[in-house]
Amino acid sequence: MSEITKHTDIAQHPAGPEHGESIHLPAGTSWPIVLAFGCTMLLGGILLGAYISLLGAVLVVFGCVGWFRQLFPHEHAEHIPVVVQPIHVETVRKKIDRYVLPGNLPADAEPPVSTPIMAGLKGGIAGGIAMVIPALIYGVVAHHSIWYPINLLGGAGLTGMGSLSTASLNAFHPATFIIAIVIHITTSLLVGLLYGALLPLLPRHPIVLGGIVTPLLWTGLLHSSLGLINPTFDVRISWPWFVVSQIAFGLVAGWIVSRDESYRRVQKLPFAMRAGLEIPGIMHESDKNGNGEGSH
C-alpha cells in the first residue's frame, strides 16, 4: 500500500528544478480576498438590505469552493527561480580607541576586588565617637547638661517630645537614651560603609572632599527634611554645632578609611580601574592577568 501511495505522489507532483536552483512556494490565489469580501457584505446587509446579504452569501460560497480547490486534493505550488548574487558586507562603524593603561603602575597596585567594608565600618565607628564630643560640649555650654542633645536625638523615636520643656530635656530619660544610642550607632555604621565605598573613587587626597564638602551637603539635606523626620530636633537644634559635629565625623571617618592598606593600593590605580569600569583596555588587561588569555 505504501508503494502505491509513493508512486501516485510522484506521478501527481512533477519534479521541480534541482535543490538550490529554485524555491518551492504556494501558488498565489485571490480566493481568500473574495471570501473576506463576501463575509463583509453578508454582515453589512443587516443594515444595507437583504440583497447585499444575498450577494455576500454567494461570494462566500464561491470563495470557500475556490479556496478549497486551491488546496485539495493537492496544494497548488510554483517554483521560483533563485538568482544567486554575491553579498559584500561593509561595516560603517567607527573605531573606538582602547583605553591605554599607564605603563609605570606600581608593583603593588591592583584593581579593587571588593568594597573595603571593614575600613568603612572602622571609619564609621571612629567618626561616630568623634561626632559625640562636639555634641556633648554643646550640651554643656548651652544648656549645662550632656543629656540635652541626647534627648533631642532620641526624640525621633518617641511621641510627645515636642511638649517637653528645656528643663525636662536636660534631665536623663532612659528611653530616649537607648533610642539615641541605636540611631547614632546605626547611622554612623551606614555612613561609614558609604565612605568606604565612595572614597576610593574620589581624588587621591579625599580628606577635604569627604570630611568637609560631604558633611555640608548632608547637613543641607537634613535642614530641608528634618521637620518631617524629627520635629522636636528641627525646632531646638543648633545648626552651627550640628555642622561642627558632622565635619568631625567626616574628617575622622575619611582619615580612618584612607589609612587602610587596601584603600592605598586602589588609590594608585587610574580612576577607570578604581571605579571598576569595563572598558576594552581594562578588560583586556584583566583577562590577560587573571586568565592568562587576552581578549580576541
What is the topology?
Layout: H1 2-12, E1 22-26, H2 31-48, H3 50-71, E2 77-81, H4 117-143, H5 147-154, H6 166-169, H7 174-198, H8 207-229, H9 231-236, H10 239-258, H11 261-267, H12 271-274, H13 280-290
Antiparallel strand pairs: 1-2
Helix pairs in contact: 2-3, 4-5, 4-7, 4-10, 5-7, 8-10
Structure explained in plain terms:
With 296 residues, the chain is mostly helical. Helix content is 63%, strand content 3%. The chain has a two-stranded antiparallel sheet. The radius of gyration is 40 Å and the shape is elongated. It starts with a helix and ends in a 6-residue tail after the last helix. Residues 1-21 are annotated as: Disordered. This is Putative membrane protein.
SSE series:
HEHHEHHHHHHHHHH
For the termini, the CA-CA separation is 59 Å
> Which range best describes the helical content: under 10%, 10-25%, 25-40%, 40-55%, 55-70% or over 70%?
55-70%
Low-pLDDT segments, ≥5 res: 1-17, 284-288, 290-296
- The 3D shape can be described as elongated
Separate helix tally: 13
Q: What does the oligomeric state look like here?
A: single chain
Question: What amount of the residues lies in strands?
Answer: under 5%
Average of pLDDT: 75
Kindly report the spatial arrangement of strands forming the biggest sheet.
1-2
Structural class: mainly alpha
Largest sheet: 2 strands, antiparallel
Give the tally of β-strands. Answer: 2
Q: What radius of gyration results from the CA coordinates?
A: 40 Å
Protein name: Putative membrane protein
Keywords: Membrane, Transmembrane, Transmembrane helix
